[in-house]
Design goal:
This protein has 231 residues and is of the alpha+beta class. Helices cover 34% and strands 24% of the residues. Strands 1, 2, 3, 4, 10 and 11 form a six-stranded antiparallel beta sheet that branches. Associates with the pre-60S ribosomal particle.
């Protein structure tokens, strides 16, 4: 007689934890470890995040610093949300600035070096769909010398009024790719990339700084954080 499935024992110790909870717990642990290993902690915000550029910066600073970009609540839990549960005296002050596009920068670098690093950090890249155009780009009627005939069908798909004339790509009318201050359409973003025009700049801004004997807020970074967080 076959055994009933209802009577099969269940070993609770083998029940797997949810991957998301494990990941969050690991981040909390790593942040708590960083608190003990670094002398200063900064909250920072950013414009036009580029993951590869951030990865390069992490590698550049790995001997002196560590960057965390995680869920805001996870980072707040690690730091402490109040004086009663903060990991070190005054650390909970950072938590209220963890909003919008923000992260934590742990470092042993002097304050002047950190401020100069963030002030000078700037990486240009191609703008993505939905980004705001920083200038108006208009193509005039006539030959477009930077494009070969093979790309002409693709240009038409991007909305450009083009044709082949004796093997050369030419515009049959003036064409506005994008207008300053307006969001980029998918077609405009692709056309700007083809033209080699970079409108996005990945920048970092310091919002506030904590050390064992000091706490400071940076006005420019705070204004940027509030601007990014506004509807």
């Amino acid at each position: 007689m076959p055994k009933s499935k209802r009577n099969r024992p269940v070993t609770l110790s083998k029940t797997k934890k949810k991957p998301g909870l494990e990941r969050k717990g690991k981040v909390v642990t790593e942040i708590k470890d960083a608190i003990d290993h670094y002398t200063s902690v900064y909250v920072f915000t950013y414009d036009n995040m580029r993951n590869q550029k951030l990865k390069d910066l992490r590698e550049q600073l790995k001997s002196s610093s560590r960057i965390f970009l995680a869920g805001k609540k996870v980072m707040q839990i690690a730091l402490g949300r109040s004086a009663a549960d903060e990991a070190k005296t005054g650390l909970h002050k950072l938590s209220k600035f963890l909003q919008g596009d923000s992260g934590l920068f742990f470092t042993n670098l002097p304050r002047d070096d950190v401020e100069r690093l963030f002030r000078e950090f700037e990486e240009h890249d191609f703008a993505r769909t939905g980004s705001t155009a920083t200038e108006t780009v208009e193509l005039k009627e006539g030959p477009i010398e930077q494009f070969t005939h093979e790309i002409e069908p693709y240009l038409r798909k991007q909305g450009l009024p083009v044709r082949l004339n004796k093997g050369a790509v030419e515009l049959i009318a003036d064409h506005v790719v994008c207008e300053e201050g307006k969001p980029l359409s998918p077609e405009a973003a692709q056309t700007l990339r083809l033209l080699g025009i970079k409108m996005a700049t990945f920048r970092l801004y310091l919002v506030c700084r904590w050390s064992s004997d000091d706490f400071e807020v940076y006005k420019e970074g705070l204004a940027q954080l509030r601007a990014d967080d506004s509807p």
